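Ticket #4471: structure export looks truncated?
Reporter: QA, pipeline team
Priority: medium

Steps to reproduce: submit the single chain below to the structure queue and open the exported record.
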Amino acid sequence: MSVQRPSASDPSADHSLTGVLNALGCFGIWGLFPIYFKLLGQVPALEVLAHRILWSVVVLLALILMQGRWQALRAEFHDWRRLRFYLLTTLLLSANWLLYIWAVQNGRILEASLGYYINPLVNVVLGVLFLRERLNPRQWAAVALAAIGVLVLIVGYGVVPWIALSLALSFGSYGMLRKKAGHPATLGLGVETALLAPVALLFILTLAARGTGALGGGDGRTDLLLLAAGLITVAPLLMFLEATRILRLSTVGLIQYMTPTLQFLLAVAVYREPFTAIHLAAFGCIWLALALYSADAWSSHRRRVGWAATPDPGTPP
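Actual output as written to the record:
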């Protein structure tokens, strides 16, 4: 029996394409996120986070209503086992959001980009540890090179790059948990943001009562940026969750290089953050690690395609 090449109308091929397009969309948007948060540089990071949570809930509830899934959302809140899971993912997600906003506003985009360069390799390790994915020696060598890059920064500056490591571990863990649980993307994110929405609303109302809140403070541009936080937040995150649901975690990690590359270029070329020889050595190790891992992934892909396209020797072509 011959092994057939998947046809152009193969549903599995369309499914994979959907996953890739979602991954490209979310990582491209996230790569340009520093521009948005720089424009909100006059608003404290915690207040920006509160607006992200509050307006994200509004957008998500509208989506859920339009999809006719309100009862399904209510069911999520009646499942105590799922709620405990969502509490953990909510903490990971909100911590990642807050740290990233703070890093951008305080001129640490370069270190944030380092975290998202490390993130794909963190995804790979998490996939091995918790999802039983296997790595070959070249992939392990890539992980080791990334670790050397981090050590270069530690030795060179005498400090641990805690922003980069915290961003990589928090978001990598969030993506892994959501993939392993397999919960619906929209409903899951709706529950996560809804759990924090009352706290976010109370915080915003308290600032407004004191006259120190940014929303309604007389700056129309700031008001528009804060009100847009829900759409700007939800759109790429839903694409990310859909991509992780469809694709292997290691595949998502491969495409994820877009985000730190765009952030790196913004940090160095636009916002003129310092880029020293130590940075070059550290980033060089990590870029080499990613190149090695990417080459191995591409080679594996070519072998799979070649195998699928090879007819059975006993069957006429």
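Status: closed, not a bug. The export was complete when the record was re-opened. Leaving a note from the reviewer for reference: The radius of gyration is 21 Å.
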